[in-house]
Amino acid sequence: MSTPQLLEVLYTRKVTFSDSELLRYREFAEQVVRTVLQEVQIHRRDGDPVIETEPIGTGSSFEGVKVKPELEFDFMVPIQTNVQQIVFCDTDPHVPSRFGIVKTQQKSQLQSKSTWKKDEDFETKFCTDARGYGFLLSADKIRKWFQSLSDRTLSALEKHFPGSTFRFQQHDPARNLLVIKDGKELNIDIVPAIAYGNAFLVAKQCSSEINLPNEATWRLSFSTSERAFFEKMKRVLPCNSCHLKCLQILKYLRENDDQLRPSSHFTHGLRSYYLKTALFHLVMESSPQAWAAGCLEQRLREMIKYLIDRLGEGNIPHIFLGNERHLVNPQWRLGVPVKFFRHTKANLLKGVKPDTMKQARLRLIEIRDNLEEILRQHLK
Fold this sequence. Notes:
Blueprint: H1 3-15, H2 19-43, E1 50-51, E2 56-58, H3 60-63, E3 71-80, E4 83-87, E5 99-104, H4 122-126, E6 127-130, E7 134-137, H5 139-151, H6 154-160, E8 165-171, E9 174-181, E10 184-196, E11 199-202, E12 217-221, H7 223-236, H8 243-260, H9 265-269, H10 272-285, H11 296-313, H12 325-328, H13 354-369, H14 371-379
Parallel strand pairs: 3-10
Antiparallel strand pairs: 1-3, 2-3, 4-5, 5-12, 6-7, 8-9, 9-10, 10-11, 11-12
Helix pairs in contact: 1-8, 1-14, 2-6, 8-10, 8-11, 10-11, 11-13
């Protein structure tokens, strides 16, 4: 078989779910999360942040690029609280790039130093006191609070969905719900988030050394705009374009490269998000016809080349943060607040060890130069 034929066979046999199978489990996951959110209302106290009852599906299962075999579903849950101001690095250099801090409306002097006493006030339970900033909403405390509420919903889930089993576990920043349904395992991640325009701050704190309490930092998420990016590509690119196949095949190669090379830095050193970012950049830089159905091999090789080049430079630019091309070409803004295009440029590879980048790059070069053989090995 030729390389294009191998790609098609791999895609059909190993990569993609049938539309009906994925849709069935996705709808079930949505029902489960809605039930969780309805049940946590019972346990939420007056004065606690308000938890919305309609989750927002994010990630590959909602973008049309899920890869076999794991059934994984990600959800953001918007919460509302007494936010006074949200601050980013464009106005405060102490705030790390890709994060924000949430200033809260201050109340009277704290009445209790105990975190869990019933008469505690909002600041003690949900905030951290940062010198010079006042009270900042704590991503860590919000995460633990949401976790404790979620844990109390297990009996209701078992009642609502007889025959399925449920178990909560932590998967930072999300609360992970492990579900067994019809003998299949579903992983459902639920993360609390605060809306900022069409962007969100999720309860994952910065792990680097900074001049702020780490727990006060919230990671920026553009998940809804990224999902909209896929919807826009469907309208802009040719009918039956190869962009989804291209990303799914590359994701499959990354996720399974350790089957061919156990120590693969492609698998263990690079996040799937880098591949999606590569696709977004290349779609914006090329003509729609470049993604026609018959161009799959060329576009896959182009994505691999993009990653090889970027790993060599040690820089994968964020698709939105600091990307000024959106200021002159609004086609791909997708509701992202304009201020983020003027933001400090964000490098997704910041923090990745140089040797990891070097080894991942060398492996990608090897895959590029031996693509046909790599595909045959995966099909054995």
